[in-house]
Amino acid sequence: MLKPLNVVDVTLDLARIDSTSGQEGEVVGFVEQLLASRGWTTTRIPVTPGRHDIFATTDPAPLVTLSTHLDTVPPYIPPARTADRLTGRGVCDAKGIAAAMICAAERLRDASVPVGLLLVVGEETTHDGANAANEAYRSGLVPPTSKALINGEPTESRLARGTKGAVRMTVRTSGVAAHSAYPHRGVSATMRLVRLMADLEAIELPKDSVLGDTTINLGMLSGGIADNVIAPSAEARIMARLVGPVDDVVTAVTRWVGDRGTVDVGVSIPAMHLATIPGIETCVVAFATDIPALARWGTPYLFGPGSIEVAHSDHEFVDIAELRRAVDTYETIVREAATHHASPVRQPA
Q1: What is the residue-averaged pLDDT of the chain?
Q2: Which distant-in-sequence residues (6+ apart) come within 8 Å of 253 by Cβ?
Q3: Which tens digits make up the pLDDT trace of 29-39?
Q4: What pairing do the DSSP bridges indicate for beta strands 159-163 and 282-285?
Q5: What total number of domains does the chain contain?
Q6: Which of 55, 91, 94, 248 is most exposed by smallest CB count within 10 Å?
Q7: Tell me, what's the pLDDT at 24?
Q8: Residue 302 pLDDT grade (very low, low, confident, very high; cuts 50, 70, 90)
Q9: pLDDT band, residue 1 (cuts 50/70/90)
């Protein structure tokens, strides 16, 4: 009989592997070997050349799927352990979560609960791993039986009632180049942009009774040629955290810019309202997740140990006691979701 996995040991094993987004091959191979050695049937889901997701199950028709990501943001920070805490890149976001899911899934498998594990790449960049997994579900590469998806991100061990979405936009202004000693000969695009951005917080943006306020961040400013040239062009990159339809925010920003510049709309992720379970504390999170890209995998839940406020930082950590409790909570969520979704429901579109 297999010895039960220790969630702390699995977290440290995963965190010792540098899996910065785009370089996930080694950690995927490690997880694949670990699960296969413990009797799981594993399937590699192609994402891009040399990059794969891993889907694992021991049931031909898994009803609930535990899913999180194996990639991390840079730079790599090796893990360490104190008496009550793990530190290092990914211990919170999201290798500790992956370890807790694996340990919970083993218990569920032993109790004959039809559960699957979906561990993806690319969450921290383009969500290409989640998109590939969604296509694998549609195409039948993996069993199209999942009715509930428990996604893992650091939520301070609370079930998220919703997640804000996001949209990236680039605001551009134009001018006329001239020698800076003769400013009347030109028009400064950078000055136009600065005046425009000074009014950014005046935009009226949507609110939601569950998700709260739309927020907007001015992330980057660039423009001009040199300090002795009147700038012919400039741009600002902004990002809004959505609580409703993306078009509502794009329309508000476009109306605000008016004829003072142009707005180019980039990648967007929708806001989501999520499922909860009685007895588990809830919250709302502002960060984006893989959930919108995994729509085919069933009713979404979001839960994870650790805090997003230390994720991506040089002091990333997770408390060992919270990590151990997360194994129990994932087991509870899967059992509740499996019971709730045991009757036939609609196939995801």
Answers
A1: 95
A2: 169, 171, 203, 216, 238, 240, 263
A3: 999 999 999 99
A4: parallel
A5: 2
A6: 248
A7: 98
A8: very high
A9: confident
Mean pLDDT in residue range 232-254: 97
Same-domain pairing of 285 and 328: yes
Q: Give the 3-state secondary structure of 201-256.
A: HHCCCCEECCCEECEEEEEEEEECCCCCECCCEEEEEEEEEECCCHHHHHHHHHHH
Last residue of a domain, one of 223, 254, 269: 269
Stretch 194-202: mean pLDDT = 95
Residue 169 and residue 211 share a domain: yes
Both 60 and 133 in one domain: the answer is yes
Q: Which residue has the tokens 């040199």?
A: 226
Extract long-range pairs of 37-45: CB within 8 Å, 24+ residues apart. 38/2, 38/5, 38/106, 39/2, 40/109, 40/117, 43/136, 43/141, 43/142, 45/129, 45/132, 45/133, 45/136, 45/141, 45/142
Tokens standing for residue 12: 């440290």
CB 119 within 8 A of CB 67: yes
Contact yes or no for 341/277 (Cβ under 8 A): no
Q: Are 60 and 36 in contact (CB under 8 A)?
A: no
User: Which residue among 24, 32, 106, 123 is the active-site one?
Assistant: 123
Structure pTM?
A: 0.87
Read off φ and ψ for residue 166, nearest 5 degrees: -155, 150
DSSP secondary structure letter of residue 71: -
Residue range 72-115, pLDDT digits in tens: 999 999 999 999 999 999 999 999 999 999 999 999 999 999 99
Please give the pLDDT value at position 267. Answer: 85
Q: Taking the CB of residue 97, how many other CB atoms lie within 10 A of it?
A: 30
- Is residue 123 annotated as a catalytic residue, yes or no? yes
Q: Is residue 189 part of a domain?
A: yes
pLDDT tens per residue across span 130-147: 999 999 999 999 999 999
Residues 6+ apart with CB under 8 A from 273: 161, 162, 210, 211
In contact, 33 and 94? CB cutoff 8 Å: no
Q: Looking at the structure, do residues 252 and 293 belong to the same domain, yes or no?
A: no
Q: Which of 157, 163, 150, 160 is nearest to 306 (CA)?
A: 157
Please check whether residue 348 lies inside any domain of the structure. Answer: no
**Spatial distance between the Cα atoms of 88 and 86, rounded to a whole number of angstroms:** 7
Residue 41: inside a domain = yes
